[in-house]
Amino acid sequence: MAILRVYVVSDATGETAERVVRSALTQFGSAPVAIVRCGGIRTAEQVRAVVAEAALRDSLILHTLVSDQLRTAILREARIHGVDAMDLLGPVLDRLATHLGVSPQEKPGLFSQLVEATSRRIEAVEFAFRHDDGQRVDELERAEIVLVGVSRTMKTPTTLYLAYHGWFAANVPIVPGIPADPALLALPHELVFGLTMSAPRLAELRRARAAHLGIPGETYASLAAVRDELRCSDALCREQGWRQIDATGKSVEEVSREVLVLGHHERAPGHDGA
What we know:
Layout: E1 4-10, H1 15-25, E2 33-38, H2 44-54, E3 59-64, H3 68-81, E4 84-87, H4 90-100, H5 110-130, E5 145-149, H6 155-164, E6 169-173, H7 182-185, E7 192-196, H8 199-213, H9 223-240, E8 243-246, H10 252-262
Parallel strand pairs: 1-2, 1-3, 3-4, 5-6, 5-7, 7-8
């Protein structure tokens, strides 16, 4: 029996369509089939080239093109060359458009982008938990954003918010009398942001935490101690060239937004703009 070549044609990677084909092929045992994946098909010229190649041998074309124009083109070329072609995605798009009352976007690769974004968000959140409160500072070079500051300056909630939005973020506490870790000091200064707060507000937050935990707050939450710690934090940030953000009276969303704006992180997470 001659080998049947199944051309899987997609304007994205073609991975989803190939999985569908391979799933179907399991019902045919060891039938002689060769799958030829043709991804990134975005023009009528590319469509013509694929169909012309398929016409040279016993072939079947299965495609998941989201563009109505390209679906029409591949159907026309298949008829001209006498190649059997089947649209795997068009009927689904048509039915959904009818029931939803809206037209599809016809943008290739949206599913792959969604999967990639979801996977990255999961990794980012895991990274944030592993690098919270100064943990694993030897791995900070993997971070895209590092927050520093004294206790209760919103470092952890801001880190987690950024991570949920796909940024690899970490945070490191600044503790008076304890030198900053060399791994932190070695980072490019534009990656590190100091979080600060007014002394009265920070003292108030610390008193609430001390009461909740049932620990003495005379030193931890005293206004004098808080002011000394903030001065140390400010001095370190100035010395290292780390930009500071005043979190007094701000929500986690507002602080995160300032971090992204200051760091020119308006691009999508994980992309350098190249």
